[in-house]
Amino acid sequence: MKGSREKIQIPDGHSFRVLRWNRSLRDVACILGPGRSVKIAGEGTHWHFHPEMELTLFISGEGTRFVGDHMGPFEAGDLLLLGGRLPHHWHTGGPTSGISLQWHFPQSHPVWALPETKEMMELFKRAERGILFTGGTSQAAAGMLQEIGSVSGTMRLSHLLHVFALLTEAPKSEFRLLSQRSFAITADSHYQQAIARSIRHLIANFRESVRLEDVVKLTALSRPTFARQFKQHAGLTFSAFLNRLRLQAACQALAESNQSVMEIALACGFTQISFFNRLFRRMQGCSPSVFRQRQQVPRKGA
C-alpha cells in the first residue's frame, strides 16, 4: 500500500476537482470540462485521508465503506460527504462507478467572507464525522453531480454551490452521521504508513486467525505504540476493529445467504459461537436469526 495520505492536486484554473470512474476506483478520470479529462490513479480502494473535503456518489456497485470508526455496506445511490483528514476507503464487491468532488476551503478561504455561507460552514463541521445522504436530497444532488462534468467556468461553480445548498437544507430524516467522532490526523504523522499496512492486513485476513503480535511486526512499532497509534488513526482498538470487520461480513452473509448462523460465524473468523452471539446482540440489538428475518430481501436485479 502506498502512503496513507493522498496528495490531491486541484487542476490549474479550478477551485475544486471532479473525478469519475466507470468500473474501478483505481482507474479514475479527472474531468476538466466538456470533452476534456486526464487519467489519474485512484486511491479509494485503500485506507487513506487528505486535507481536502470530498463528496462521493456511487452510481453503481456495492461493498463495504470505512469512514472514521464506522463500517457499513454501501450500494448504488449512496451519497457521502467527508470532512478533511477523515480516514476512509471503499472495499468494493465488484465493478463500481461514480463521481467524486474534492475541494479545500480552509478558514482563510475567501468564500467564508460571504455571509450566505454560514449554514454551509455548519454543514462542513458536521462532515468531520462523515455524512450519508438519502432520499430526495441524495437524488437531487446526484442529478447535479452527473451534470457538473458537462459544464465549465461559472456554471460549474454554480452547480457546486447548488449541491452545497441541497445538502445544507436536507431534512433530518435524509442524512445521518457515520463516525462516532471526528478525526484530526496530522499530515506529517510518521505512523501513517505503518497503520495503513496493518489495516490492509486486517481487511485481507480477518476471516483467518489473526494474531496481534504478527500485525505489530508488520508495522515495526512497539506493542504499546502500535496500540496507541492504531486507536488514534482508526478510531477503534485493534480487537474492536477486527471484530467489527468480522461482524460486518457476518451481517452481509446473514442477509444474502442461506448458510446457518454457525457456518457464517466460523467463516467470518469467529471461533466461539457464544462470543459471536453476545457481540452480535450488543452491536445489532437482536440475535443473528432475528437480524436475518429483518434484513434478508431479494437482491437487486435478482
CATH architecture of the largest domain: Sandwich
- Give the integer mean of the pLDDT values: 90
The name of the CATH topology of the largest domain is Jelly Rolls
CATH class of the largest domain: Mainly Beta
Radius of gyration: 20 Å
Classify the helix fraction into a percent range: 25-40%
By DSSP (H or I, 4+ residues per run), the number of helices equals 10
Biggest sheet strand line-up: 3-2-1-9-4-7-10-11
Structural class: alpha+beta
Q: Please provide the count of β strands.
A: 11
Beta strand %: 15-25%
Distance between the termini: 35 Å
Task: State the fourth-level CATH superfamily of the largest domain.
Answer: Jelly Rolls
Break the fold down into its secondary structure elements and pairings.
Layout: E1 16-21, E2 27-33, E3 36-41, E4 53-60, E5 62-67, E6 70-75, E7 79-82, E8 88-92, E9 97-103, H1 118-126, E10 131-133, H2 135-148, H3 153-168, E11 175-177, H4 192-205, H5 212-219, H6 223-234, H7 238-256, H8 261-267, H9 273-284, H10 288-295
Antiparallel strand pairs: 1-2, 1-9, 2-3, 4-7, 4-9, 5-6, 5-8, 7-10, 10-11
